[in-house]
Amino acid sequence: MSTGELSNKKVVVTGGAGFLGSYIVDELQRRGCAAPVVVRSREFDLTSGEAVDRLISTTKPDILIHAAAAVGGIGANRARPGDFFYLNAIMGIQLLESARRQGVEKTVVLGTICSYPKFTPIPFREDDLWNGYPEETNAPYGIAKKAILAQGQAYRQQYGMNVIFVMPVNLYGPRDNFDPESSHVIPALIRKCVEARQQGKPSIEIWGDGSPTREFLYAKDAAKGIVQAAISYNKPEPINLGNGYEISIRDLATKIVEMSGFKGKIEWNKAMPNGQPRRCLDVTRAHEEFGFVAETSFDLGLRETIDWYEANANSIPASAH
How large is the greatest C-alpha to C-alpha distance in the chain, in angstroms? Predict the structure, then answer.
């Protein structure tokens, strides 16, 4: 399928009103898809088989992009592991089954790099996905998503269903979730630094010791890769989306402290978990299969994310702490 053909396709995006989903919708429109269908949970409860069947039968997608997910940071994953397993597994399983039965032309499932083994060799290569158990704090979420990969491959083998599985690395950018109870590391640090600066606090606390490394992908870049995969990629193997830039949490925190204008100190709470030791992706497959290259530099992306938070902080729920 070419970019031009996208304008003739009915594209449905679960989670299309969410952080990444909203960028996917923007990119679809930029690429000629005039009216992507945004699936909202208040209209279709994706944990309900009846609602999922109704979604597919009423929207009749040519392409289904499954971006809806139950996600959170380390704290949320430790507090609600059952929720993260069940919700992600049941949504994906029912969507694929309904899409199969109703003849959806192509289904794009968004996975997670939380599915990789805890001690995956760096950089993470897609072929290493099954070579060990994920890091404990997010294993239920990662395994639920990996089950959908297995389902999609099984459906391709048995039914000839075109299902692809795309795994974006840690995302960030404007519109991210800045809720202190469930946000990931970049929005959590931005919020802590900005609030501490505004309140004149002498220090902020960060979990762990700062040694783990992470790779981050600007959400707008991720959306471009996902839409290009929807257009061009038609193979059973999972595919990483990232930019190959690895940074320690300590260096990340220092960078955000400087860019946010916070003048205080960082206190590392070493009694709290670090999460996975390292994350950095091999993105060769995405480049070779459909020419994906991340375009936004990390410093520019951080600057835009901090500026967006500062401009929108008043509309974001207050911290519970």
Answer: 61
